[in-house]
Specification:
Number of strands: 8
Keywords: Coiled coil, Protein transport, Transport
Radius of gyration: 32 Å
Number of helices: 6
Protein name: Flagellar biosynthesis/type III secretory pathway protein
GO biological process, one term: protein transport
Distance between the termini: 21 Å
Organism: Clostridium pasteurianum BC1
CATH architecture of one domain: 2-Layer Sandwich
Oligomer: single chain
Amino acid sequence: MPLSSSVIKNTKVIAQGKKEIITESNIEEKQQSLEEIKDIIKNNGNENIDKFDEIAKAIIEKAKSEAEDIRVKAINDAETMKNEAHNKGYEEGKQQGYNDAYNETIGKSKAEADNIMSNAENNASNLVNSAKIQYEKYLLDKQVNIKELALFIAKQILKREVKEEQGIDDMIYDAVSTAKNSALIIIKCSSLHYNALSDAVELWKKQIPLKGEIFVIEDNFIENDSAIIEKDNGKIELSISIGLEKIKEELMN
């Protein structure tokens, strides 16, 4: 769906090899689809992710401006409609006044003018109400786009992080902290994260008041974006996918 967005003039998109980066500057209006913005972010490492707040703000501000234009135009159109109806009623009454007896015509023309004005007011009222609905829907659509973009960026960040050796350390640390009273904690992870987690565990032993033993085991049946923590009273399954689902629930509610 086309997303009428003010993208950072930063979106003076500069080619560097096959990369496009958003450069810092002021804001210019640019028509871009949500998918186009996603593609720019997806193909550019972390450069544009840092600019998400600015991009989101620019999109919302532009949406508010366009929605306000819709509202103002509707009000102006309604006023024009009323004036035209008034003039039409007056002219018709005036013309009939020349052709028929004045006293007879004035009552008839007034009734016709009142009828025209009444219809015009109803039409104008409907126009304004319709514009209000369009205004609210326009902003709502933009908010949905922003949420979708935020979820997409969160996914890109997490996907990049898990490719690093220490990419799931924070996720594991939080889970280990909740299981600190267990007599035994076993962390199972892929070979990508094994060395980094083994080093991290030695540090955590000093930071977290663990009551039992903690070990890291390499398990290549586990995906790089996941880990399993086994403890004496059960296990905890961790996954970036699960985290993204929780983020999605928070954003879309």
